Each structure stands twice: as structure tokens, then as C-alpha cells.
Amino acid sequence: MASAVASTLSSHASGSSATLRATNDPAWVRWTLTTIALLFLTFFLALPLAAVFAEALRRGFGAYFSAFADHDAIASIRLTLLTALISVPANLVFGVAAAWVIAKFQFRGKSLLTTLIDLPFAVSPVISGLIYVLVFGLQGWWGAWLIEHDLKIIFAVPGIILATTFVTFPFVARELIPLMQSQGSDEEYAAISLGASGWQTFWHVTVPNIKWGLLYGVILCNARAMGEFGAVSVVSGHIRGETNTMPLHVEILYNEYNFVGAFAVASLLAVLAIVTLVLKALVEWRHAQTRRSS
Amino acid sequence: MSIQVSSIRKTFGAFTALNGVDLHVPSGKLVALLGPSGSGKTTLLRIIAGLEFADEGSGQIQFHGVDVTRVPAGQRKVGFVFQHYALFRHMTIFENIAFGLKVRPRAERPAAREIAERVRFLLKLVQLEGLEGRYPSQLSGGQRQRIALARALAVDPKVLLLDEPFGALDAKVRKELRRWLRRFHDEIHLTTVFVTHDQEEALEIADEVVIMNQAKVEQVGTPQEVYDRPASPFVYQFLGNVNVLRAQALAHAGAHQPHAGALESDGRVYVRPHDIEVIPHIPGAPGMAAVLRYVHAAGPQARLTLEQVQTRETIEVEIARSELSLLDLKTGDLVNLRLRQGHSFADDYAI
Q1: Residue B139 · residue A294 · CB < 8 Å
Q2: How far is C-alpha A163 from the geometric centre of its chain's CA atoms?
Q3: Which helix (H) or strand (E) holds B317?
Q4: Under an 8 A CB cutoff, do B73 and A193 touch?
Q5: Torsion angle of alpha carbons A285, A286, A289, A293, nearest 10°?
Q6: d(CA A198, CA B14)
Q7: Distance between CA B192 and CA A227 in Å, rounded?
């Protein structure tokens, strides 16, 4: 990344000597700003990331991989994947539905709905978790009823999935609303006037038009679903091997001074994050390509 | 197929888009819905297409005598061309045109070979053969417009509806395309309604012009009828430039008035700039005295701006360039004006 920044900078510098540009800052300003940015990136992003891997591998690969052989670690990885596997598709459906309603229809309370979609971003994740404890917990509104019917939500997997779904709800919707609004409804109207059903219109006209935005939203949603700590921590109950997701498992290991184990699991999360970012960059690049060709 | 619209009402919240509109479109005609923006013309077109529905309890839409008021758009056999074309941006031109055939239920869907044949036929019809593989964004505005037309025609509509078909094109393409549309209509004889706010466009190509204003139909007639005999001051002013003069001033100036009988109820006379004659000023001669203020001679006709001496009203006049050079006028010169033709309205039409 650093080399890419440097190369764009040098090409700018050589360009500016040949032609006059409206935004022609002196060289020392450009270099200072670039240096500050690079230093910041190094200290706040690159070093911590490197530290995670360094710590994880401090006792060699044997210790590193044995951290994943642990039964609780495997359970936490499985739970994290399960959570993402349920909450991401759920938010895909909710997000498309919400964006559709907001972008294509006029109704009373539309701006209220738009604001509500942002609510999970606005409140602290801890509060999101507490809401579920309040509703489904033992002392909560439906607590008695749930016990009667032998249903466990808080301190169990359903609670974790609910909290994660809530926290990650805005990603897909936020991504799609401006996209759908800018595209308008004319193509849908055209499809309908040509005799297509609502379902055909959705699959043949709407989905192809929003697919890149949708994919982008899903990737971000997935990244957050796997990494969510606050809300999940409140509803999880921290039962080892049962209700610990990967971020929670990392915390427990760290608190027990099992640094290699903690950093090993953390490194796996970091790898997931990096893969997500690479995918996101790829999607953006593909999107730019299709846009340029069209 | 004829279209009959009877007392259609449409409101959006507090805004009335159509206030009891009646309209008859004869089979096989090319009809223009003409009006300023906000007059309800596009809403009317969309209601005819079924993309919008009239208010509950208001009138009917009939196609060839059959009530289609509640029939969904896809079943009305209507071809609709959108103002900004609304081509499917992720589909090739071929896929765009074939769309209406491909989405049919299996039993009614033509075979792939037939669809391909139909697409090719339509591309030939709109004179854009060979563009099958392109994407909409690779075409010019005029080409996209014709592809949108071909796509609408693919489903074999009984009625063709076009919303501001030339609105997004530049002036030259616009002129070419509208003449092309007229010839095209003469070939296929499909009942066609198009919306426009450009009076020149409507008068040039339509068989019949429907002039709309403030959610109502003001006048229906052939281009010649509505231009020569406007039913209201609004129509008069909307269809080209017009001078609005006070009748007393004319009488005082001794100008002759062809429609003098109608003058009594209304104090104003409407005169087109080309219906005013400019003659050299001779004191005592008939006509009203005016001072030449400005000459705009770049164009086929010279446009003169004059100020009437007695009332200080501004008058626009159009005369041939040759006539102007014969008169040999300079700004500030005094001339006499005579009306060839004027028009006045009863009071209830007053603007």
C-alpha cells in the first residue's frame, strides 16, 4: 500500500512540473502530508496487525496451531460462522426489502423509517445487547413466558444471532438506498408495461442493477457480524464451548494470560478481516470496470 | 384501437393533477398532449398506460369500447416509451428488445428463433440494424430513443404512448427524429399519443393536438384549428408569441379590427407578431403610431420591438427581411402599425 501511495505521489510531482494545475500545493506540503499519513497508517494499522501475528507465532507454529486444536476454540469458530451464516442472509433480505420500500415508494413516516434503520449504528452495541436482555431475559417482558415454554434466548445461541443481526442491520440497507434512489423506478415501470410480473421485474431488472452495491453491503455486513463484540458479550453469558464467539474467546484467553492462544485466534479474525477487505476491493474494482464499460 | 378517457380525476395529496379530464383519441391517429409542466399531461399518459391509477370513484379509460380502468399495465397491450428511455442498462440491445417476449408465460412465449427474428425485424424498422450486441450506454440519445420504441413495439401493442419523446435530445436530432416519427407513424398506423411541452413539435407532427392547462383540457383540434382559432387566451399565448393589446387603444388609433364584434365583452385583443403590418408614418393615416425600439434581424424573419406612442405598450412584430430593408428603418423611427388579424375573448376567459 505504501509503495502505491508513493508512486501516485511521484507521478503527480512529475506531472506538476510540466503543466500548471489549479491545485498546485508546494512540494513540502505534499511531502509533509504524505509522511504524516504514512506514519499514522504504520503506527495505528500496520504495527498492531503485525504485532498480532508476531505474538501469535512467538512460540512457533506448533503452539500457534495447537491453539486451534482446543475444543473451545473450535466451538467459538463454529459459533461465529453459524452466526454470520444466519444473520447475513437475514439482513440481505431485510436490507433489500427496506431499501426497496424507501427508494421506490412515497409514504408517511418514510424519513422516520430511514432514521430507524440507522439506529443500530447510532447506539452503543452494549445498549443493543441490553435491549435483548430486557425483552427476552429472565426478568424481561417475555422472560416468564419463555421459561414456561422452555425456550432459551438470552445466554444462548439465538440471543447471539439476534444481537448480531440487529447490530449489522444497516449495512445492506444503507448501501442500497442511495443506489436505488439514484436509479429511480423507470426501468421497473418499463418492465411492467412490457408485461413482466413483479417477481420477474425484481429478478431481471432490479437485482442486476443493484448487484454490486448488494455484494458490497453483504461483505461489510459479514465483516461486522464476525467481529461484533459488545452486543454479543452482553447476551452471550460466556459459557465456554457453547456461547462464546471468536471475539469473546479471544478476550477470555487474554484474561487468562494465554497470550499465544488469544493472539492466534485474533490472527484468524484478522485474516478474515483482510480477506473481507480484499473481496471488497475486488468488488469495487469490478464495479468500476462495469461502470466504465457501460 | 381508439382510446376514450372520461372524467378522470387524479390527486397527489393536496395537489390535483387531473380534474375531470375527458379525451377521445381516434383509432390510428397521432395525437399530441401539449401543455406547460404541471398541467397533468404526463399523469394522463401514465393513467392511460396503467402505470398510474385514477382516483377511486372517478371516470373510466376505455380501449376500443372495453373498460380497462382496473386492468394492470402489462395486460393493456400498450407500448410505453419513457422520457429518459428507461432501457435496461445491464442488458444488450437485443435483450432489451426481446424482454417483453421473453417474460411471457411459457405457453405464449415464442421460440428463441422467432424472438431473434422479431428483434431483427424491429431493429430494421427503427433503422438500427447491427446494434444487437451493444449496451444502451454505448448509444447516442437518438439511437436509445429508437431502441426504446422498438422495445415497446416488440410486444405488438395496440396503442403507443410516448412521454416527452424528444425532450432529452439536442435541437437538431430532435427535429430529425420527430419527422422520422411522423413518417414512421404513417407506415405503421398505430394509435399513438405523445406528450410534449414544445408547441412547435406538437403542431408539426400531430394529427390532433390536445392542449392541457392546470389539470384540464383547454382545447382539442387539428394543429391548424388550434393555431388559427384558439379557444382561450391561454391557448393563444401558449401556441407561439402573441401581443396582448388594449382594445380602446386600437380604436383610438383607428386600426381596423377583423373581429371587432367580439371586442365588447373583453378589453383585450390578441395579435400574432406576423399579423401586424408596418407602414411608414404619415400623420392622420389609419393605424397606430409606434416608435421602433429594437431590431433583431438574425434569422429568416426580422423581429421588431416597438413601443406604442399613446399607451406605451410594447409590441412585437415579425416581418420579412426584404420588407424591412424596403422600409429602411432605424431605431427611434416613428411608424404606423396595422392589424391584419386579431382575436378577442369573452370575459370568462380573461387571464
Answers
A1: no
A2: 14
A3: strand B314-320
A4: yes
A5: -170
A6: 29
A7: 59
Query: 3-class SS at B183?
Result: helix
Longest dimension (CA), chain B: 85
* Cα A240 to Cα B29: distance, rounded to the nearest angstrom: 79
Nearest to B84 among A186, A192, A197 (CB): A186
B78, B49 contact by CB (below 8 A) = yes
Name the residue type at position B208: E
Output Rg (C-alpha) for chain A, integer angstroms. 24
* Residue A207, phi-psi category: left (phi > 0), alpha (psi -120 to 50), beta (remainder): alpha
pLDDT confidence bin for B170, thresholds 50/70/90:
confident
Q: Tell me the whole-structure pTM to 2 decimals.
A: 0.78
Distance CA B193, CA B29 (A): 8
Strand-pair partners of B227? none
Instruction: Report whether B123 contacts B97 (CB < 8 A).
Output: yes
Whether the Cβ atoms of residue A129 and residue A235 lie closer than 8 Å to each other: yes
Give residue-wise pLDDT tens across range A117-160: 989 988 898 988 888 888 888 777 887 888 888 888 888 889 99
C-alpha A251/C-alpha A263 separation (Å) is: 10
3-state SS, residue B232: coil
Interface test with A, best of B71, B84, B89 (most A CBs within 10 A): B89
Q: The dihedral of CA B204, B210, B213, B215: what is its sign?
A: negative
What is the C-alpha to C-alpha distance for residues B39 and B16, in angstroms, rounded to an integer? 10
Q: Cα–chain-centroid distance for residue B68? A: 26
Q: For residue B166, count other CB atoms closer than 10 A to its CB.
A: 24
Helix (H, G, I), strand (E, B) or coil at B132: coil
> Of A217, A215, A216, A223, whose CA–CA distance to A164 is shortest?
A223
The residue of B12, B51, B96 whose CB has the most chain A CBs within 10 angstroms, and thus the best one to mutate to test that interface, is B51
Q: Label residue B315 left, alpha or beta by phi (over 0 means left) and psi (-120 to 50 means alpha).
A: beta
Q: Which amino acid is at B206?
A: A
Alpha-carbon radius of gyration of chain B: 25
Helices (H), B246-320: 247-253
B260 has pLDDT over 50: no
Task: Work out the burial of residue A160: count CB atoms within 10 Å of its CB; fewer than 13 is exposed, 13-18 middle, 19 or more buried.
Answer: buried
User: What distance in Å separates residue A209's CA from the closest CA in chain B?
Assistant: 7
User: Coil, strand or helix: which one is B242?
Assistant: coil
